[in-house]
Automatic annotation (TrEMBL):
InterPro entries: Aminoglycoside_PTrfase (IPR002575), CcrZ_PhaseVar_Mediator (IPR052077), Kinase-like_dom_sf (IPR011009). This is Phosphotransferase family protein. Residues 55-239 form the Aminoglycoside phosphotransferase domain. It comes from the Bacteria. The keyword Transferase applies. Keywords: Transferase. One of its GO terms (molecular function) is transferase activity.
Amino acid sequence: MEFLDAHKKDKRKKWLENLLGRDWELETAGGSTGEAFSAKDGERKLFLKCNSSPFLAVLSAEGIVPKLLWTKRIANGDVITAQRWVNGRKLKPMEMKQPEVAALLGRIHRSTELLDMLKRIEAKVMTPEVLLQRLCTYSLPADQQSPIIFKAFEFLKARKSTVYYDNFVVCHCDMNHNNWIMDEEEGLFLVDWDGASVADPALDLSILLHWYVPKKEWHEWLDAYELDLNDQLLERMHWYIVWHTLEWMLSKGIYEDSGYVQVWLRYLNVLVEDDDRRITRLED
């Protein structure tokens, strides 16, 4: 499999070299798919990607990603997009607390242009029911199944109807700090939109706030996002952070490192037990 993947990457690189000409130097630009490249010709530099979503054009027009320069289809059927290279850097985890991050995400979530475009491309809405169905596609060997995993899944099933929210927006779905690029001249960009979906904004907010922003600062951060923190939002974000954590554990196969997985199982258990305590207090 690795040999086939390497062969595919080399072949794609040759197609790009033929497309750009011999003066351009190509290098892979990270990622495991082999679909992203940097191209340099003297002072000129481009970011190239194969088979990006048509959604990229409207993201560029909105200034959310670096400017899209051209799109071309090559002989093997791949669609190549070229964006202007920005001399930026990835945000550090601690920088995700900045109001600029909140403001940009709020602008994305409120954009009707982005929502209309993504609905044309992706008809399925990522409702709690659909997200639960996704979890069911993963499986674990019998010796790696944990009671905490089943407890978290039961938590999600029991509360899916109570967190349903139909004011859907465009969600990026991967709030990792590495996807936020700060450019000194043009400000902040959010990149890598391949997994974007129409969903509850809490799908993005949950992981960003829980993993990057201290809880005492949530009110301030959401002020910059232009949203009030209320009990309904807290409930929805709690459901989605349990889903994110469970989905991440199952999809990444972290069971290969038993010490590492124990840390995540403890975190998942704390999330579910914290909700149990909160429900008990409300009933009292």
